[in-house]
């Protein structure tokens, strides 16, 4: 029986990054993955970030080509071939999964395929697909088992008509009318994909705004844009009843307006339930350990990702931090550095960039205007629209804006909010600036190349100081 | 030909020196390498030899002036005859006025009043040789936000704040904690040159409100005295001082010294009790590496070298030259090193680097006759031993109850209880006792 320094359970972006960093730190490392297709990469790679962004890319290209005539590109009969799109998406996923396997080999990490569980002090059991069990002996365990789609208890999932985000990835046809429950990142991204693929799309959100965790101006802009593109958006609304059969889905939607609640029945071809995700901690061998798992299934950890059980760490979607691939990866590195005795600095969760790849893209870091006010800051903001940016006009994508939230006292940069073209790329400037504790002045002192979309960030800094140039 | 003499670089970390005496008058002939003036730094007193031969024609620093290294302090004329003093060119006089820092008292006054926001606005001056000092790094490695906050609160010197960010960068949280502790207000009230405030929670010492009488007089605290004062207070605030006291029988050492003394003298080395003590300390440090360690944040830094500082009393202060790699030296080698260092310390010929890098300190002040003393740890070391006088004392043999007269000394070790527990401290001292009592 091999003796490992670190065994990672789960090969998603938290787990596999932790494993590589562990091996690179000179620790003998194994990774356990129970994925039936025997591919590594977890949700992010197999049925999350990577395949959805591939689908979004085809939607973007479709839209660009359809609007080609506006800029002199005459692409006639532009159409989507779902089968080819699926093949392309499959290639992207396969290439990335292969890349992770290669990295495991390169870093001499043992890959054990099967269901990994804690099995007593310093032990991890791996139950293989054929039922055979193997026990690994290790000094440390990193739990990175991730999350699954959260299903609403009153909705029966039917593989034909009522789908979760895993199932919708495998769609072979464009739905005629897709209803999406949940206007968070997952819901708005699929809504954006299928709207541009040609579906009629209805987006239903319980909160009073789409992307409810974003800054209120950003949410409003997103909703305005979705509607302009032809999407039906119902906020302050909830689905109360769902009936699905071979013909389609029938559902009752209640919408609150002030004190009044109105009800309507919507008939659609497909329903996507994108109401969130749930941590996968039911079957990790926690019994008899000092792991603390709360009622939501989340594992409690300290600032170094340590659980209550000595030598056992937990990262990613099973802990109570933002459920994002880049957060999981950082947590994996932090856990390994702690195991390796490197005295690492805990993660500053205030500086996690949030990215939604809907159209237009939305990205943010730090505090929203409202949150900054609630935190007691004397807030000032600077907003600059992409419509006044040359590069945006060139790209024929002038929707959206950059918004800076700052503290009046020291001009401290508290938050950066972007809705518009390449928002998810542009947000990095704000993340770096905030990591360095910049003030607005550093942002506007920084020379931004022209013409670029990034100019909008500098202009928003100028606007926050009361002197925007190009507006 | 006129030739300039500059304040020499005295060691890696020494950036300025105070002129304490001129050893030559204007018009005197000075040979190459002949002592020209004396300086004192916060580390060491030293005579500065003349780099060239000539006649001293100008002295550009007065006694008491604190001068940065590489500043011109004297002009020699290599062709003049004794007593001949050619007039200074106007250019060099102007340079002298610009380069000479005002006398110590005035300098501290200027620092207190002038060095607030302006110091922040200006780019940090690179130190000599292009390598920025730790303080410069700290200042440049604060964040923009921190510099803004510092400016508002009139905090000129960010190096007094412990930075928790990458590479010691001072973050917003660090400076806010510093401000909340009220430390910066105290810092502003004191001489900026004393630098860091060690312990924000410590209340500022009450002003004694001295009213000097007619027969009283003030004398400025020299840089060394000021440095010792600052180091001692900081050490008290840094380490959790605990103490253990052992009486050690020196009979065996007496016998050994008597036996070896002549032989050592033949080789030109005076064999002192200090050499035995340093040897015993080095052996014990090898057996107990934690006593040779330093605390860095929450990490213990175990030192590979065993470098024992030996305190030497000077007329008005104290200096601690360091015997390096003591564990690799024989008793003869140790004795020779100590003699050399102590002699040069008393004659101001020590180099500043020779007082750096100690990992443990022995303060052998028993020569003045005390029973024992309780020393303060020389930061960032973790322990220090102070020895009492070797005196004949009545001791009781623990086995036979016989009452005997023996030469003994009482050793007191102060140790940082954060890193060493009483048991370790006692075992360490017991190791020294066994070495000394069982000397062969």
If you had to describe this structure to a student in words, what would you say it looks like?
The complex is a heterodimer of chains A (471) and B (440). By secondary structure, chain A is an alpha/beta fold. Chain A has three domains: 4-149 and 278-349, FAD/NAD(P)-binding domain, CATH 3.50.50.60; 162-275, FAD/NAD(P)-binding domain (3-Layer(bba) Sandwich); 360-465, FAD/NAD-linked reductase, C-terminal dimerisation domain (Enolase-like, domain 1, 2-Layer Sandwich), CATH 3.30.390. Chain A contains 13 helices and 22 strands. Chain A has helices spanning 15-24, 42-47, 49-66, 82-106, 165-168, 185-197, 216-228, 325-339, 369-374, 390-395, 423-435, 440-445, 455-464, and strands spanning 3-9, 29-33, 110-113, 115-118, 123-127, 133-143, 147-149, 162-163, 177-181, 200-204, 232-234, 237-245, 248-257, 260-268, 270-273, 277-279, 312-314, 354-356, 362-366, 379-385, 401-407, 413-419. In chain A, strands 1, 2, 3, 4, 5, 6 and 17 form a seven-stranded mixed β-sheet that branches. A five-stranded parallel β-sheet of chain A has the order 8-15-9-10-11. The radius of gyration of chain A is 23 Å and the shape is globular. The N and C termini of chain A lie far apart (69 Å). Chain B has 440 residues and is an alpha+beta fold. In chain B, strands 9, 12, 15, 16, 17, 18 and 19 form a seven-stranded mixed β-sheet that branches. Chain B has three domains: 2-77, OB fold (Dihydrolipoamide Acetyltransferase, E2P) (Beta Barrel), CATH 2.40.50.100; 144-183, Irregular (Dihydrolipoamide Transferase); 241-438, 2-Layer Sandwich (Chloramphenicol Acetyltransferase), CATH 3.30.559. The chains are: A alpha/beta (471), B alpha+beta (440). Chains A and B meet through loops of A and helix 5 of B.
Span from first to last CA of chain B? 63 Å
Into which percent range does the helicity of residues of chain B fall?
25-40%
* Unreliable stretches covering 5 or more consecutive residues of chain A: none
Using the CA coordinates, give the radius of gyration of chain B.
Answer: 25 Å
Shape of chain B: globular
Unreliable stretches of chain B (pLDDT < 50, length at least 5) are 89-130, 189-207
Distance between the termini of chain A: 69 Å
**Number of structurally distinct domains of chain B:** 3
**Global Rg of chain A:** 23 Å
- β-strand amount of chain A: 25-35%
CATH architecture of the largest domain in chain B: 2-Layer Sandwich
Identify the CATH architecture of the largest domain in chain A: 3-Layer(bba) Sandwich
Quickly count the helices of chain A. Answer: 13
> What is the assembly state of the chains in this entry?
heterodimer
Tell the overall outline of chain A: globular
CATH topology of the largest domain in chain B: Chloramphenicol Acetyltransferase
Largest sheet of chain B: 7 strands, mixed
Biggest β-sheet description of chain A: 7 strands, mixed
* CATH level-3 fold name of the largest domain in chain A: FAD/NAD(P)-binding domain
> What is the CATH C level class of the largest domain in chain A, in words?
Alpha Beta
Protein name (chain B): Dihydrolipoamide acetyltransferase component of pyruvate dehydrogenase complex
Region (Disordered) (chain B): 105-141, 183-211
Keywords (chain B): Acyltransferase, Lipoyl, Transferase
Biased composition (Low complexity) (chain B): 105-125
């Amino acid at each position: 029986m091999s003796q490992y320094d670190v065994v990672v359970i789960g090969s998603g972006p938290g787990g596999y990054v932790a494993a590589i960093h562990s091996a690179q730190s000179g620790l003998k490392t194994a990774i356990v993955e129970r994925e039936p297709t025997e591919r590594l990469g977890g949700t992010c790679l197999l049925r999350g970030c990577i395949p959805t962004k591939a689908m979004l890319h085809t939607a973007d290209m479709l839209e660009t080509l359809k609007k080609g005539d506006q800029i002199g590109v005459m692409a006639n009969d532009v159409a989507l071939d779902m089968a080819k799109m699926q093949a392309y998406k499959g290639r992207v996923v396969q290439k990335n999964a292969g890349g992770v396997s290669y990295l495991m080999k390169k870093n001499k990490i043992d890959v054990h395929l099967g269901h990994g569980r804690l099995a007593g002090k310093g032990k991890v059991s791996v139950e293989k697909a054929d039922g055979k069990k193997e026990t690994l002996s290790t000094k440390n365990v990193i739990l990175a088992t991730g999350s699954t789609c959260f299903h609403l208890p009153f909705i029966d999932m039917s593989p034909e008509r009522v789908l979760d985000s895993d199932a919708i990835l495998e769609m072979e046809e464009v739905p005629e009318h897709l209803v999406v429950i949940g206007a968070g990142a997952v819901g708005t991204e699929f809504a954006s994909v299928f709207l541009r693929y040609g579906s009629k799309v209805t987006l239903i959100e319980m909160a009073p705004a789409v992307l409810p965790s974003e800054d209120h101006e950003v949410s409003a802009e997103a909703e305005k844009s979705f509607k302009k593109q032809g999407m039906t958006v119902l906020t302050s609304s909830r689905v109360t009843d769902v009936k699905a059969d071979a013909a389609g889905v029938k559902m009752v939607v209640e919408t609150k307006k002030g004190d009044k609640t109105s009800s309507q029945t919507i008939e659609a071809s497909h329903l996507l339930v994108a109401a969130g995700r749930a941590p996968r901690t039911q079957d990790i061998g926690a019994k008899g350990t000092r792991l603390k798992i709360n009622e939501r299934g989340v594992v409690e950890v300290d600032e170094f990702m340590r659980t209550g059980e000595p030598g056992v760490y937990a990262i990613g979607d099973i802990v109570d931090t933002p459920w994002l691939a880049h957060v999981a990866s950082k947590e994996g590195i932090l856990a390994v550095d702690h195991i390796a005795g490197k005295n690492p600095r805990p993660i500053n969760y205030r500086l996690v960039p949030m990215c939604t790849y809907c159209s237009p893209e939305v990205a943010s870091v730090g505090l929203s205007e409202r949150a900054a006010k609630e935190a007691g800051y004397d807030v000032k903001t600077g907003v600059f629209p992409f419509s006044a940016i040359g590069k945006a006009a060139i790209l024929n994508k002038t929707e959206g804006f950059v918004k800076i939230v700052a503290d009046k006292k020291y001009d401290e940069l508290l938050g950066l909010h972007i809705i518009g073209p390449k928002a998810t790329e542009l947000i990095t400037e704000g993340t770096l600036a905030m990591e360095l504790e910049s003030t607005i002045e550093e942002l506007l002192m920084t020379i931004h190349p022209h013409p670029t979309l990034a100019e909008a960030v500098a202009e928003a800094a100028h606007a926050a100081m009361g002197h925007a140039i190009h507006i | 030909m006129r030739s300039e003499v500059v304040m020499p670089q005295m060691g890696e970390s020494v950036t300025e020196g105070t002129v304490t005496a001129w050893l030559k008058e204007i018009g005197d002939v000075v040979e190459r390498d002949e002592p020209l003036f004396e300086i004192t730094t916060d580390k060491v007193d030293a005579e500065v030899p003349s780099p060239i031969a000539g006649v001293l024609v100008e002295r550009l620093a007065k006694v008491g002036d604190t001068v940065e290294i590489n500043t011109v302090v004297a002009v020699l004329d290599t062709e003049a005859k004794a007593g001949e003093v050619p007039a200074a060119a106007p250019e060099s006089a102007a340079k002298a006025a610009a380069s000479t820092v005002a006398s110590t008292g005035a300098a501290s006054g200027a620092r207190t009043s002038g060095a607030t926001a302006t110091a922040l606005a200006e780019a940090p001056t690179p130190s000599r040789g292009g390598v920025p000092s730790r303080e410069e790094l700290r200042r440049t490695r604060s964040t923009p936000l921190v510099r803004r906050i510092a400016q508002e609160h009139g905090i000129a010197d960010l190096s007094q704040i412990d930075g928790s960010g990458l590479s010691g960068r001072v973050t917003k949280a660090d400076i806010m904690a510093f401000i909340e502790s009220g430390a910066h207000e105290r810092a502003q009230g004191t001489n900026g040159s004393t630098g860091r405030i060690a312990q924000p929670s410590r209340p500022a010492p009450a002003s004694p409100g001295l009213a000097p009488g007619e027969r009283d007089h003030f004398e400025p605290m020299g840089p060394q005295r000021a440095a010792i004062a600052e180091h001692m207070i900081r050490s008290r605030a840094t380490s959790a001082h605990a103490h253990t006291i052992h009486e050690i029988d020196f009979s065996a050492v007496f016998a050994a010294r008597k036996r070896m003394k002549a032989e050592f003298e033949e080789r030109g080395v005076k064999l002192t009790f200090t050499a035995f003590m340093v040897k015993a300390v080095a052996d014990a440090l090898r057996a107990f590496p934690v006593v040779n360690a330093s605390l860095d944040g929450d990490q213990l830094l175990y030192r590979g070298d065993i470098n024992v500082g030996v305190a030497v009393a000077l007329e008005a202060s104290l200096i601690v030259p360091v015997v390096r790699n003591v564990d690799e030296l024989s008793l003869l080698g140790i004795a020779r090193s100590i003699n050399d260092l102590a002699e040069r310390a008393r004659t101001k010929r020590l180099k500043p680097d020779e007082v750096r890098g100690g990992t443990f300190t022995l303060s052998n002040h028993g020569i003045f006759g005390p029973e024992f003393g309780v020393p303060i740890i020389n930061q960032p070391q973790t322990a220090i031993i102070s020895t009492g006088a070797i005196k004949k004392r009545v001791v009781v043999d623990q086995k036979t109850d016989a009452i005997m007269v023996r030469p003994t000394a009482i050793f007191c070790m102060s140790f940082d209880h954060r890193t060493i527990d009483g048991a370790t401290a006692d075992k360490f001292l017991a190791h020294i006792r066994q070495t000394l009592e069982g000397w062969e």
